Amino acid sequence: MAFIKEESEDVKIEETFTVKQEDLQEQTDLIEVNEGSKEEEHRVKIEEKNYLQTDGILKRRDKNHFICTQCVKSFGRKDDLKFHMMIHAGEKPFTCTQCGKSFNQSSSLKIHMRIHTGEKPFTCTQCGKSFSQSSSLNLHMRIHTGEKPFTCTQCGKSFSQSSSLNLHMRIHTGEKPFTCTQCGKSFSQSSSLNLHVRIHTGEKPFTCPQCGKSFSHSSHLNCHMKIHTGEKPFTCPHCGKSFSQSSHLNCHMKIHTGEKPFTCPQCGKSFSQSSNLNCHMTIHTGEKPFTCTQCGKSFTCSSHLHQHMRIHTGEKPFTCTQCGKCFNCSSHLNQHIRIHSGEKPFTCTQCGKSFSQSSHLNQHIMSHTGEKPFMSNHLV
User: Where is each C2H2-type domain found (predicted)?
Assistant: First the structure.
């Protein structure tokens, strides 16, 4: 790629370099203007009014700027333009000796090397957190300052990073540019697609150090860890019952509100959770799509299959914090806990007697009704 050579008293540019792509050859767009003689200045002013036609793209010659003929981006220094041209040429002369990754600038390689060395020279003065790049520190500082300079023109929501705003805008536009090649499902974020792909690959990179169970999402592992720690940070304001996940508390709250927004179209029965409705629907269809690979037994709900699988694996992830006894179902642990607490939440409406389990209450009710369902037919 040849550059226009312009001479003045102090400045002389006599530098050419060749760009790999053939379509970049014979393009001239480097202009350096020195405000020297009036004659030279007059010639430049005239030249600034003209346009240079290159590969069907109009290029304007900006005073004291070096312009890329491929994308019209301008630079204040010719060295910056030279580095930029490597993007179009695909040239990456700077290679990492550790992993072989290549870069078009030595500064980019230097930043990359910090991944291998672990160097983080930029430290936050507020909290002491360190970063490998100054730009990362600048973004981090907005956490402390509360600065959110990027605002959505649709809803007014503000963000600390332009990338966060770009992702947010897809809510309004409905854009989902990341598509799964396996099933065609689309996503607004590449990270969401990466998580989805694990459904097809079966990849579960997050493993519990306590029991060895693996998960496809780190958030799922975090929720699982609360089983071992017994942590239940989400508490019901009505009855004081605590939960390990906020979603479980939200479902529980419907017991107090009586809300059952999910209705069966077949029989009209309503449920507080969509998963309960899905399980119920299999009563009408007779469908049991979840089959145990060990014994072939089928179930209407995936949760029932998961509980059943613990019979084969021997897994008992639910541990009593009082005595250390383990159970394969959380419901069994809840029943067991009542031994220690003495809680008897199931009360007979006939005589007021209370029980720790609903099954015990059901058996007791039969003493009032006189029902004897377990009597043999030949004794009737």
Answer: 66-93, 94-121, 122-149, 150-177, 178-205, 206-233, 234-261, 262-289, 290-317, 318-345, 346-373
pLDDT tens for 211-260 read 989 998 888 898 888 888 888 888 999 888 888 888 888 888 888 888 88
Task: Evaluate whether 1-110 and 178-229 have a shared fold.
Answer: yes
Instruction: Please choose, from the candidates 31, 45, 36, the residue with its C-alpha nearest in 3D space to the C-alpha of residue 10.
Output: 36
CATH class (in words) of the domain with range 178-229: alpha beta
- Whether residue 89 contacts residue 24, with contact meaning beta carbons closer than 8 Å, is answered with yes
Structure tokens at 240: 């004081």
Q: Report CA 353 to chain centroid distance, whole Å.
A: 51
Give per-residue pLDDT as tens, 32-61.
Answer: 434 444 444 444 343 443 333 333 333 434
Residue type, 230: G
Percent of the chain with pLDDT over 90: 22
Residue 29 and residue 54 in contact, taking contact as beta carbons nearer than 8 Å? yes
Q: Does domain 1-110 have CATH number 3.40.50.2300?
A: no
Residues in the chain: 380
**Whole-number Å distance between alpha carbons of 135 and 139:** 6
Contact predicate 238/255, CB 8 Å: no
The pTM of this model reads 0.40
Residues contacting residue 107 through CB under 8 Å, at least 6 positions apart? none
- Using alpha carbons only, what angle is made at residue 66 by residues 65 and 69, rounded to the nearest 5 degrees? 130
Question: In the structure, how many helices (H) and strands (E) does the chain have?
Answer: 12, 24
Give per-10-residue mean pLDDT for the chain (380 aa). Answer: 41 38 40 41 41 36 71 84 81 88 86 89 92 90 91 93 90 92 91 89 90 89 86 89 87 86 91 85 87 90 86 89 89 88 88 87 86 52
> Domain coordinates of the chain in residue numbers?
1-110, 178-229, 260-343
Which of 2.60.40.4070, 3.30.160.60, 3.40.50.880, 3.30.420.10 would CATH assign to domain 260-343?
3.30.160.60
Side-chain-side CA neighbours of 258 within 13 Å: the count stands at 0
